[in-house]
Amino acid sequence: MPIGERVSYVRKDVLRLSQVAFAKRLGVSDRTVKRWETSYIAPTRANAEKIAELAGLEPELFFPDAIEPDTDRTAEELSQIRAILAELRGQIDRILEREVGLASLVDKQMTLLEKQSRLLEAIEAAVDPPAGGAAKPGPAQGRK
Fold first, then answer.
1. What are phi and psi of 68, to 5 degrees?
2. Once rounded to an integer, what is the mean pLDDT over residues 96-109?
3. Statement: residue 131 has pLDDT above 80
4. Coil vs helix vs strand at 68
5. DSSP readout, the chain?
6. How many CB atoms lie within 10 A of CB 62?
7. 55 and 10 Cβ atoms separated by less than 8 Å
8. What is the mean pLDDT of residues 102-108?
9. What is the C-alpha separation between 136 and 123, in angstroms, rounded?
10. Widest CA span of the chain, in angstroms?
11. pLDDT of residue 3
12. Residue 35 contacts by C-beta under 8 Å, 6 or more apart in sequence?
């Protein structure tokens, strides 16, 4: 049964009220009641609870999947979500800054390792010359 039919059933058959009287009891306009009954809009959770209370029903039993959240609550939840997202963005920015710093350190370390490797190759070549060739005189040997 669509939400509109449920609202209409409660109003007409359970409470035996006109749309105007029903609206007054709920503190809404009769236009709002008409919109509910035509399923143009669904009642907010607060209004669904008022309807259920008037009819002596549990709101979740009568309106299990059709209750829209209260507008104020949604705005509050959106505000909380935005605050959480802002905090997460800040954390992500800090992580990225650290990663950039780490990447820079890794690049420097790689450059040092490459220089060390070339230096070791030069030392090995000076200490253990290739077969058939003589070692080049280094600064300590001097040239004659």
1. -85, 145
2. 81
3. no
4. strand
5. --HHHHHHHIIIIIS---HHHHHHHHTS-HHHHHHHHTTSS--BHHHHHHHHHHHT--HHHHSTTTPBPPHHHHHHHHHHHHHHHHHHHHHHHHHHHHHHHHHHHHHHHHHHHHHHHHHHHHHHHHHSPPTT-PPPP-TTT---
6. 21
7. yes
8. 83
9. 11
10. 123
11. 80
12. 41
Residues present in the chain in total = 144
Do 42 and 36 touch, CB atoms closer than 8 A? yes
Structure tokens at 109: 């370390």
Q: How far apart are CA 32 and CA 96, in angstroms?
A: 51
Closest by alpha carbon to 115, among 107, 73, 55, 31? Answer: 107
Q: Among 27-31, 48-52, 124-128, where is mean pLDDT lowest?
A: 124-128
* 29 residue type, one letter: S
Dist. CA 74–CA 88, nearest whole Å? 21
Residue 142 predicted with pLDDT over 60: no
Residue type, 11: R
Spatial distance between the Cα atoms of 40 and 42, rounded to a whole number of angstroms = 7
Question: In angstroms, rounded to a whole number, what is the distance separating the alpha carbons of residues 144 and 134?
Answer: 16
